[in-house]
């Protein structure tokens, strides 16, 4: 008995240990997967009078129940319980006579498991109208639905009622709905630019018609076909340089694909000039501005081949106007249609090198020669270079050719002659180049206009004055300086009179071009014209002549106002030699705050003479007496080609133009005669006159300013 008792104790202890372990393991009490099984119908339909129905279900975990949105016409019990089999009784109150069909959803939840029980009560069908979709110039899809459950009402017809403008509704019957009650109708042959109104409807067996709300849509206008040149011109008009904009107009552009790029292992992004994005280039004519680059967001979007003829609906496309003037676009891919294939395009022979006009076009440039090969970082070399700089005969402007690494030209021998190149013009939004296709530079090289050369000799005065010492400035204008240095001792100056010249030991030439200024002093003793000849400065020899005249006596009256231009200031104080007149400061208003010498005002390309953004302004006020103005003088510096408008305004009147002239760097001193302007005569005490000097230029890089260390002046007579 003792042995049996001990074994029994051991067995009891093992059983207790097992039970304790089970108590500590929650999974020992719960099934692995929660489940709710509905044992009866999950859809309950009640008559208008309402009533009670029940749903049986079984859950293997504790459960709860709730009705979505808590409608006040449904109640149920119980709403929770432990694992096991249950029956929920659902009560629905009576539906008012003529009320709409209604529906609710009861959800039974058990942990992550749940089941829906649909509760419906008989009533009139619920008819809904949804917005039209796929609206185009001639088509649209109407969308609606009706929902109903019950046997006492039968729907015999459903569809849409449609009208245009102020016309009458016309019914269009639809045959089928989906399981949710939704139905559609595709309309064709609609009129462009027309407003349509429609609603969903159903008809019951009692001939009662029920409708959804009216919805209105308008078909867009038929697309306008634009040439690429027209689209690019419009883009430059509406999109600010360096910016992008989405096109709202319904335009269509057609063209032929002349190049197609998709990044790959064989064609990495760094081997392609424009941005490294997938793109195609298309053209529709052999004239300037007839090429366009179309970019894509992904490589999968670019399925187009060279020679494809395509039609692009440009509405909603993103247009880009690059800072270099080039125009490109990011179209909606679904709006591109291929209409043909296999087209072959001939290169357009251009006689100039304005590549921006032929962006995204095949071109051929003749009479050209290579002057430099380098990488994108500027390193000059031949092998592995990807930019070739070339020039056209009798042209002083260079252009660039891009040689992609996969091109056979990349491994060719350097071509040192002249001839032609052909390829497709492309841009990265900043630089413009030719993606080379063919090149033949085997002819004799021509004389380059891009070598440094001495182009002209001029002076800063128009005449010399007899009998006194004249200090003048010789201007030696050159081009293509290449940032090199030259010895002053190499510059030889001769003249038919005695003179002294201040020549520096060394001069550094600007890369593109400029002028060397040399001060000269001389005293003419007679009226013989004075001739200066300069040689030894780069290549060539230039002579220029000055007439000798008597001293000019300027009647300045008893009033003179002056401004001392010192340093890089935006304002120079004015002074007057006559207390009867007050002279205000000379102020530069606009984009840059200093205005002397080469640091002059810049980027006045948006200026106009009527309402300028950048200008010099001063004023004079008559304190006593009557003032008549005689003249205005100042010394200027800037860029050739800048146009200057000089204006005045008396009191609060509008500005009137005195003169408009083209600035010439060789004629830096400007004198304006004011004696013949009636409005500037006999100005009474208390009168203020404003003066403006307005630079005008289409080139945002041009500069213009009042020269440093000079003293502009205005003069007249007070009586």
Written overview of the protein:
There is one protein chain. By secondary structure, the protein is mainly β. The chain has 6 domains: 36-121, Sandwich (Immunoglobulin-like), CATH 2.60.40.10; 126-218, Immunoglobulins (Immunoglobulin-like, Sandwich); 224-340, OB fold (Dihydrolipoamide Acetyltransferase, E2P) (Beta Barrel), CATH 2.40.50.140; 348-443, OB fold (Dihydrolipoamide Acetyltransferase, E2P) (Beta Barrel); 453-549, Immunoglobulin-like (Sandwich); 559-718, Jelly Rolls, CATH 2.60.120. The strands form 11 sheets. Strands 18, 19, 20, 21, 22, 23, 24, 25 and 26 form a 9-stranded mixed sheet that branches. A hairpin with a 7-residue loop joins strand 21 (279-283) and strand 22. The longest helix is centred in the first third of the chain and has 23 residues, at 2-24.
């Amino acid at each position: 008995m003792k042995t049996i008792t001990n074994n029994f104790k051991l067995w009891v202890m093992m059983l207790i240990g097992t039970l304790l372990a089970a108590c500590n393991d929650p999974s020992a009490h719960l099934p692995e997967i929660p489940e709710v099984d509905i044992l009866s119908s999950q859809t309950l339909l009640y008559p208008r009078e309402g009533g009670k129905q029940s749903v049986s279900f079984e859950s293997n975990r504790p459960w709860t129940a709730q009705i979505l949105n808590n409608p006040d016409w449904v109640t149920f019990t119980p709403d929770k319980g432990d694992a096991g089999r249950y029956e929920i009784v659902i009560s629905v109150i009576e539906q008012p006579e003529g009320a709409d069909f209604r529906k609710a959803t009861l959800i039974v939840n058990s942990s992550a498991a749940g089941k829906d029980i649909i509760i419906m009560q008989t009533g009139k069908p619920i008819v809904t109208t949804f917005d039209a979709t796929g609206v185009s110039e001639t088509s649209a899809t109407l969308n609606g639905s009706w929902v109903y459950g019950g046997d006492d009402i039968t729907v015999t017809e459903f569809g849409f009622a449609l009208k245009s403008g102020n016309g009458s509704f016309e019914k269009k019957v639809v045959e089928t709905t989906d399981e949710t009650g939704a139905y559609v109708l595709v309309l064709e042959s609609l009129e462009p630019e027309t407003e349509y109104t429609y609603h969903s409807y159903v008809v019951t067996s009692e001939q009662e018609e029920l409708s959804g709300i009216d919805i209105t849509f308008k078909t867009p206008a038929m697309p306008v076909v634009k040439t690429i040149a027209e689209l690019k011109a419009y883009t430059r008009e509406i999109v600010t340089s360096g910016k992008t904009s989405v096109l709202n107009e319904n335009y269509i552009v057609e063209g032929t694909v002349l190049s197609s790029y998709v990044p790959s292992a064989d064609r990495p992004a760094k081997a392609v000039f424009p941005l490294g994005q997938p793109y195609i280039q298309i053209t529709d004519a052999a004239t300037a501005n007839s090429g366009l680059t179309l970019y894509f967001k992904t490589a999968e979007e670019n399925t187009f081949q060279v020679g494809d003829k395509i039609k692009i609906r440009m509405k909603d496309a993103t247009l880009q106007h690059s800072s270099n003037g080039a125009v490109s676009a990011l179209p909606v891919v679904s709006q591109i249609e291929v209409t043909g294939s296999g087209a072959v395009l001939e290169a357009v022979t251009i006689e100039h090198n304005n590549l921006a006009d032929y962006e995204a076009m095949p071109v051929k440039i003749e009479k050209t020669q290579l002057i430099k090969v380098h990488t994108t970082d500027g390193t000059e070399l031949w092998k592995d270079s990807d930019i070739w700089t070339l020039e056209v005969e009798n042209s002083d402007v260079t252009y660039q050719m891009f040689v992609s690494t996969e091109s056979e030209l990349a491994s060719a021998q350097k071509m040192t002659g002249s001839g032609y190149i052909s390829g497709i013009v492309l841009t990265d939004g900043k630089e413009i180049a030719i993606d080379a296709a063919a090149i033949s530079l085997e002819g004799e090289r021509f004389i380059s206009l891009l070598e440094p050369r001495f182009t002209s000799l001029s002076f800063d005065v128009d005449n010399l004055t007899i009998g006194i010492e004249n200090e003048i400035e010789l201007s030696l204008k050159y081009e293509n300086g290449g940032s090199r240095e030259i010895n002053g001792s190499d510059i030889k100056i001769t003249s038919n009179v005695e003179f002294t010249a201040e020549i520096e030991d060394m001069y550094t030439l600007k890369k593109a071009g400029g002028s060397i200024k040399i001060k000269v002093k001389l005293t003419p003793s007679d009226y013989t014209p004075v001739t200066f000849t300069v040689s030894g400065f780069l290549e060539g020899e230039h002579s220029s002549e000055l007439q000798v005249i008597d001293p000019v006596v300027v009647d300045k009256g008893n009033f003179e106002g002056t401004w001392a231009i010192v340093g890089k200031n935006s304002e120079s104080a004015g002074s007057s030699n006559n207390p009867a007149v007050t002279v205000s400061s000379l102020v530069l208003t606009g984009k840059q705050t200093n205005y002397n010498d080469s640091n002059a005002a810049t980027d006045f390309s948006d200026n106009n003479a009527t309402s300028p953004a950048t200008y010099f302004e001063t004023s004079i006020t008559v304190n006593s007496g009557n003032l008549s103005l005689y003249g205005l003088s100042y010394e200027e510096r800037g860029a050739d080609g800048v146009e200057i408008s000089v204006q005045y305004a008396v009191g609060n009147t509008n500005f009137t133009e005195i003169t408009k002239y083209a600035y010439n760097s060789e004629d830096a001193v400007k004198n304006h005669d004011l004696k013949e302007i009636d409005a500037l005569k006999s100005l009474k005490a208390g009168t203020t006159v404003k003066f403006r000097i307005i630079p005008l230029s289409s080139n945002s890089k041009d500069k213009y300013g009042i020269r440093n260390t000079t003293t502009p002046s205005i003069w007249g007579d007070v009586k």
